[in-house]
């Protein structure tokens, strides 16, 4: 996996404002303290995928989460995959499968940087915010953030495919559930069909 520039968390936002707390939360996921890990999962779940809504910081959380799952020594790896699923996809219902990202994220194409900046300004900087001033673009901006998170995850689908053969069945099962949302993965059907018959939970 190629390295990418470290995000400037101080200029990124999540549901509660600046995302400066995110690096510490991510670091806690690999720590020895189960209470701290649980708190980190809860904090990230509520901030970067709050009730299914993604934010500018959300796409930048994907690569660190994948790196954690790729590291066998990471505790609670199935939980990390579950968190990754939420960040990448929000809270979609299975009845929208097969997933069509081009259609689902179409509204994002009409969003520019100025639209995103305007929404963030209303949400986090104005003392007396008036949501009506950005009502015409707010939904499309949210779709843009969701699309960014999805596409960030899509770049890591080779890792997801590798996880199908993970010795921890819960990791493999969650990887299979995650991959169902990425129809453009080369040879996806072959990879899913190649899951061993002795791993019934994963195949299900």
Major β-sheet annotation = 2 strands, antiparallel
How much β-strand is present in the residues?
A: under 5%
What's the mean pLDDT score? 89
How do the SSEs run, as a string of H and E?
Answer: EEHHEEHHHHHHHHH
| pLDDT < 50 runs, ≥5 residues | none
Report the count of strand segments. Answer: 4
Provide a count of the helices: 11
Reading side by side through the largest sheet, how are the strands ordered? 1-2
Q: Helical residue percent?
A: 40-55%
- Label the overall shape: globular
> Mind telling me the C-alpha Rg?
18 Å
User: For the terminal residues, how far apart are their CA atoms?
Assistant: 29 Å
Q: How many domains make up the coordinates?
A: 1
In terms of structural class, how would the helical and strand content be classed? mainly alpha
Topology:
Layout: E1 13-14, E2 17-18, H1 22-28, H2 34-48, E3 49-50, E4 53-54, H3 58-70, H4 77-89, H5 101-104, H6 113-124, H7 135-154, H8 157-163, H9 169-179, H10 188-193, H11 200-203
Antiparallel strand pairs: 1-2, 3-4
Helix pairs in contact: 1-2, 2-4, 3-4, 3-7, 4-7, 4-9, 8-9
């Amino acid at each position: 996996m190629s390295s990418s520039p470290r995000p400037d968390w101080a200029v990124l936002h999540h549901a509660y404002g600046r995302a400066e707390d995110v690096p510490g939360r991510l670091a806690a996921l690999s720590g020895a303290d189960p209470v701290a890990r649980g708190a980190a999962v809860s904090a990230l779940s509520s901030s970067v995928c709050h009730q299914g809504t993604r934010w500018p910081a959300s796409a930048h959380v994907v690569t660190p989460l994948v790196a954690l799952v790729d590291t066998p020594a990471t505790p609670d790896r199935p939980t990390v995959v579950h968190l990754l699923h939420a960040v990448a996809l929000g809270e979609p219902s299975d009845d929208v499968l097969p997933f069509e990202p081009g259609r689902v994220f179409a509204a994002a194409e009409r969003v520019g940087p100025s639209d995103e900046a305007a929404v963030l300004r209303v949400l986090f900087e104005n003392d007396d915010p008036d949501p009506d001033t950005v009502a015409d673009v707010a939904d499309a901006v949210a779709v843009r953030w969701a699309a960014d998170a999805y596409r960030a995850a899509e770049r890591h689908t080779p890792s997801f495919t590798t996880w199908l053969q993970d010795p921890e069945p819960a990791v493999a099962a969650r990887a299979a559930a995650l991959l169902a949302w990425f129809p453009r993965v080369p040879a996806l059907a072959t990879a899913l069909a190649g899951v061993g018959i002795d791993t019934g939970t994963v195949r299900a």
